[in-house]
Amino acid sequence: MSAIVVVTTVGDENEGNLIGRELVGRRHAACVNMISGVRSIYRWKGKICRDSEYLLIIKTMEAEFDAVSRTIQELHSYELPEILAFNIGRGDANFLNWVEGSLDKAAAFEEEEDLPELDGL
C-alpha cells in the first residue's frame, strides 16, 4: 500500500470546495480536508507577499498523484499552485484500506445527492 498526502493552498473557500469535490468525485482522492485561516508569506515575482489562504490536505494513493496534480492544475486559479506529496510511512491499516478502496474506479457508481452548502461551518 503506498498512501500519500498531497497538500495545496487556495485563495478562497469556493475554490477549495470545487477542487475537493472534483478530486473525490473523480475518485482521485478518498478525502480532502480544508483548513481556513492559513497565513502565507512568500516571494513572488520579486515581491514579498502575504495572503490568507485555505490549506487542502488530500488523502490518496501514489498511483493517483498525476491525476490529482492534473485536476488541481485544471481547476486552480493560481499561476503556479503548490502541489506537494508526502509519503505516509505508517498509518492505521483500516484507514489506509478505506483510502485505497475509495479510489476504486471499478466500484459500482451510486448517484450522490449534491453536498449541502457549507456556509456557517
What is this structure's SSE topology?
Elements: E1 3-10, H1 13-25, E2 31-44, E3 47-61, H2 65-75, E4 84-87, H3 93-102
Descriptive notes:
With 121 residues, the protein is of the alpha+beta class. It has a single domain, classed as Alpha-Beta Plaits (2-Layer Sandwich). The protein is 28% helix and 34% strand. The protein has three helices and four strands. The chain has helices at 13-25, 65-75, 93-102, and strands at residues 3-10, 31-44, 47-61, 84-87. The protein has a four-stranded antiparallel beta sheet with strand order 2-3-1-4. β2 and β3 (47-61) form a beta hairpin.
Count of helix runs: 3
Q: State the major sheet.
A: 4 strands, antiparallel
How far is the N terminus from the C terminus? 34 Å
- What is the architecture at the second tier of CATH? 2-Layer Sandwich
Question: Which segments are poorly predicted (pLDDT under 50) over 5 or more consecutive residues?
Answer: none
* Rg over alpha carbons: 15 Å
Order of helices and strands: EHEEHEH
Number of strands: 4
Total domains, how many? 1
Q: What portion of residues is helical? A: 25-40%
This entry's quaternary arrangement is single chain
Classification by helices and strands: alpha+beta
- Inertia-based shape: elongated
